[in-house]
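Morning. Coffee machine broken again, so started the prediction first thing and wrote up yesterday's gels while waiting. Chain of 743 residues, entered below exactly as on the submission form.
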Amino acid sequence: MDKLRQLPDNWHAFTNLDLALPGRGMREIDLVMVLEDRLLLIDLKDWLGPVVSKDGNWFNGKRDCGRSPVHKINENVRELTSLLRKFITEQSKAGGSSSKKLPYPWIEGAVVLTRANDRSGVSGSEISRVFSVDPFMRMLRNRGERDAQLGESPSRHTDFTTPEWIARFRHFFNTSTGIFQAGTRRYGGFRAKNDSPTFAHRDGIFTEFDVDEEGVQMSTGLLRRWDFTKADTRFQAEEGRATIVGREKSVIAWLDDRNPICGSSLLKPKVDDPDRGVSYWEVFEKRRRMKRLAEYCETDFQKSTPGERLELARQILASAKLLHDLKAAHLDIGPHSIWLEAPTTVRLSHLMAASFPEIESMGSARFQFLSSSTVPEDVLGGEVNPLRKDVFLLGCVVHALLFGELPAGSPPDWDAKVDRDGLFTTLHPWFARSLDIDKNARFADASEMLDAFNAAASSGSGEKSVIEGLDRFLTLKSQRQVFQAYPESELIQEDQRVAIWRTDSSDGPRVVKLWKGTAIGDLKREASRILAFLERAEAHIESPVPGTVVLHNVHWTGDAIVLVQDLVEGPTLLDEIEQKSQLSDPVQALRFFRELADVVNVLHDRSLAHGDLKPANIVVSSRDDAAEFHPVLIDLLDFSPRADGERLSKAYAPSSGGRFERDRFAVTRMVEEVIGTQQIKGDIWADIARAIDQCRIGPPENSTLLPLMEALDRALKPRMSEPIDYCSRSRPTILRSIERVTV
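Came back before lunch.
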């Protein structure tokens, strides 16, 4: 922007615009410059390079940045030319029959590299529209050089910088009404809800914001924006910065690898800034109704029950226990890093200062400047024991949760007077030990803490919180109300366990599934499992996974569970295996299962699993009657009493493992059933078969689909420059075009 101020004063610029095209989404426009003879659309790239164009994509170093910005800016030029011509025509008509017809401004596009000077990697067909910033500015100021490089403008005889034309452009580019909006910075598909941070580090090293995922209804996240100019100088350089950037992701990966249950209690990273500069950013997955402990104390404390708060406290300690069992310590536990959703959901965040067994030895206090929490050892001095530091911090957050405020003092200290109503007298000794100024007098770790907490907490409070949780889903109080809310238009299935029917609404057809009392079992014994099922359904509703059936509502009637979901049209994969029709083309089948693996991976990344994946639970869907087919997972959730065990199909389940392992095994089994029976032989199928073995054998067994995904990618994009014959039983044969692949 500073360089723009060096350009002629009569030139004009419109910056940071979003162009809304009906049915085609939003187009980002960094800069529109108004020169005497033309308009320039400019896409700014703040990349270090090297910049290389290959196969229609651009690469910044080793990172694939997607489709060429030259192609995208040219598309924007075409769209804007049409829209501006229409606007100018309307302006001419508004001037009356006597007014002179207005000329159309010539519009051109350019990509400007603000930090890279080497353009040698850009393809010859694009190089004429790609500039480094300083030569670009010099070229613009010299009209002869501008005409030589960009070409003479057909509208060069009109001066578009006159007050009359600038007024027209201001009207056209107006962001208050019309097709343009003020641009909002995007973070890997997420947009900040507002400019007000929800949390800021005490030294300003990072700030955090609530964000929404574009194009995914009710999918939210937590954005953390870093400002390394506020950090110690040793962390401002690229080498020092690299020890912090993405460290939390590494900690989570380490914990996940050793105990997936531990990983499911953490806010997971979704996307981060690939440039990893001084303004690095990262986005974490966060459910919409989840609140920080700090916010919970302000908004929900008064309306929550003591039993509900006790249960949440128990879950906080249980989450910390999972870390301590692996000899890892959080070291930044506080109201900012504890996330709650009543009655039982807890997540931890801010693990960038965590201590865990590392291959590379690190200074014990190297990352503690990132922490926002303190213990007596930090104030009074003395050696810090990571696990006992966590114990003190856990005592503080449980104090805040039960009493609505952190313990007073610096350092904080236990005072029984805070329990004004005597609701938690049995926990007073527990608090005194947790918050002891002498670290050696505290509990040794979170496991010992949790045992003592459970022993001291009043009995029956857990049962009460579960009942209160079930009441939250009691939106339809009887099965009669269910049938009134969702009238049957077609009965799909009914037996002793479930009733499934179609209902038609103004928003389209829905499928209603009702689990009867016989499927639920003893309510007293199954209450906690029913609540967990309802909350799992709610998680799917609030954060839908692409490639899975959309869930709309979940209800508890007191004697039945009701789930309302979209009706997904199309044959199932079981039908396809029997009929061999839609996926008979090898390329189509490879793409279908590559997409299926992606869907399962995304589901697992959100700590969710299908658990009974099989061909009958996958619809082969054609979007908008297109030629390509896509997998849609249905029957995501099923309930059965504890005594019956989990419902699963043995043909698609391994001999050991849980829901996640069953999903991965089922994918490999279905690949064998569909692709393995087609005319895909030779080296290609051998490669896929080896990948399936790697997925199943591990170690650990069925812990990843990555080898299969890579093998499918190789089959779809062979290293050869031309497509291959998937039918070959020996070495692949080069063909001239993809249309000639033989089935």
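Residues 190-464 form a domain with the Transferase(Phosphotransferase); domain 1 fold (CATH 1.10.510.10). Going to sketch it on the whiteboard this afternoon.
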